């Protein structure tokens, strides 16, 4: 059993998996680096969150703001729950690896692989979704922290706080929401890269290509998408 599992780490499997990890980790660092130097969804949304928190401090009632943050929390909760279901399905697949291998042989361009190789790919998927689950639950907690900060916000009608203090509070609250959103984004990114694993069941070359395609899609959406153009335009209008 041990020998069969070690055989799955053939140089081609090792290179494919290494390419996958390089793309995932490398893109994460690249996106974080570029967000500080050029316009991206993350950087532009930060400005809008600061404006949101400043507007919040001038409102009489925070019902709408509470509803907005609760809606985001529900989205994160949905993905956390879905991830548990996906993990349960993947664990149920492991005892039936042989049957799955037979079904895969009927797919065109399928590269003949051993059951231990299929098992390796399923286990990689399991690891990705375990990471996604912990990421989503941490994002939920951070959005909860943000709710507390919003509830404790020093409103304009409250005495004992200056405009400077309120602006500083707004920036730090926006930063907390930023951190929660980044964590949520990491979980979503795990789903994107998990999609690249499925072509690996058919061909290693498809896996390599799918991984590169995921990076291209993420890059385009983060730095060149139409929503980014709209958000930048609105940010400029707010500054003017």
TrEMBL record:
Q: What name appears for this protein in its UniProt entry?
A: DUF599 domain-containing protein
**What keywords tag this UniProt record?**
Membrane, Transmembrane, Transmembrane helix
Can you tell me where the transmembrane regions are?
A: 12-30, 78-98, 118-140, 191-219
Record carries keyword Transmembrane helix? yes
């Amino acid at each position: 059993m041990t020998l069969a599992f070690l055989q799955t780490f053939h140089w081609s499997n090792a290179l494919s998996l290494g390419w996958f990890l390089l793309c995932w980790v490398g893109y994460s660092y690249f996106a974080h680096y570029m967000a500080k130097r050029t316009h991206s969804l993350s950087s532009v949304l930060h400005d809008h969150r600061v404006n949101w928190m400043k507007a919040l401090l001038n409102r009489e009632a925070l019902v709408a703001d509470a509803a907005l943050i609760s809606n985001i929390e529900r989205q994160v909760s949905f993905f956390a729950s879905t991830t548990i279901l996906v993990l349960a399905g993947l664990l149920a697949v492991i005892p039936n690896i042989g049957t799955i291998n037979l079904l895969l042989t009927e797919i065109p361009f399928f590269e003949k692989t051993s059951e231990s190789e299929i098992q390796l790919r399923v286990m990689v998927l399991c690891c990705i979704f375990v990471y996604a689950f912990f990421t989503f639950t941490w994002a939920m907690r951070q959005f909860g922290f943000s709710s507390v900060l919003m509830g404790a916000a020093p409103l304009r009608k409250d005495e004992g706080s200056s405009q400077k203090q309120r602006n500083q509070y707004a920036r730090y609250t926006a930063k907390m929401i930023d951190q929660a959103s980044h964590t949520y984004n990491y979980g979503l990114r795990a789903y994107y890269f998990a999609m690249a694993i499925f072509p690996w069941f058919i061909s290693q070359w498809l896996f390599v290509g799918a991984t590169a395609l995921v990076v291209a899609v993420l890059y385009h959406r983060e730095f060149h998408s139409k929503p980014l153009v709209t958000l930048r335009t609105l940010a400029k209008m707010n500054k003017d």
